[in-house]
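During the no-cost extension, the postdoctoral fellow (Dr. R.K.) reprocessed legacy sequence entries with the updated structure-token encoder. One reprocessed record is reproduced below for audit purposes.
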Amino acid sequence: MIKTIEWKDGKVKMIDQSKLPLKEEFFECSDYECVIDAIKSMKIRGAPAIGVAAAMGIALGAKNTLVNDADELLKEIDVICEKMRNTRPTAINLFWAIERMRKVVFSNTWAGVEGIKNALENEAIKIANEDVEVNKKMGELGAPLIKNGDGILTHCNAGSLATVKYGTALAPIYHSFKEGKKIHIYVDETRPRLQGARLTIWELNKENIPATLITDNMAGYFMAKGKIDKVFVGSDRIATNGDAANKIGTYSLAILAKEHKIPFYVVAPTSTIDFNVSSGNEIPIEERDESEVTHIGGVQIAPDGISVVNPAFDVTPHRLITAIVTEKGILYPPFEVKIENLRP
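Re-encoded structure tokens follow.
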């Protein structure tokens, strides 16, 4: 199974997701500006993976600084953290990782410049390792929700490529397949950036898991035909009432699943819960460039000069969610009290 991002020889090594599925190409970042560019350009994407990338970018920035005074180092790290915050607004894991790295800085001021640098590098590696273990745990906990013979619909990419390894929504699928369950995955193409067509189906094929690619507007058809038994999706931010932001189009699937009485599962680590947000109405939604809608693969498909909007995410209300799978257990409605019990 592919490892999306890792700290290697003092650099950050990542697979370039913008080149997939035609080229499996890795690149290295030796400075934090490179990591920022990778996040903004979506060479790396997926909420947990973005969080790990931000942590490693901060560690790189500290590693490369020439200052020899702890106070000056703190100022530089503050600048780096602010630039990281401005890369993408919706995925809470980004901000969670940044704050975790900042706490390490302030708890190690006594150690001097080199001590802070070492502590940041160790913390970034720790965050990456924890991500792998958390995803494995979600896979184990979520697998019993999948029965032998199930047809499962997934949206966007919530597999290994969205994390360090294993994924979120795909983790129970990987675990179930490993257990020997006969399952079939229906993969939404996920317009406009086609993460399903470019990434998820590529991942599943590498693991020899039976999968079929469909366009986003085919989901209702296959549900009505009885081909879909479960829907599994990830999330970029979950409010304390259980509302979940995920790739645009997820809300539509949840409504279709409700109409067809199909269980709709959100799989995400507790780091995806924003304990400062009480409902999905408060979650910031990233607006991306209109060219993602007017072009596919660099080829223009729409007339010049038209009006375009391109929200990257939508919010699925908690009333449409059957359960939320986390590394600390499966949460069933009502979500509010159960999510509050997970507050760190």
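The mean pLDDT is 96. The chain has two domains: 5-132, 138-340. The remaining legacy entries will be reprocessed before the final report is submitted.
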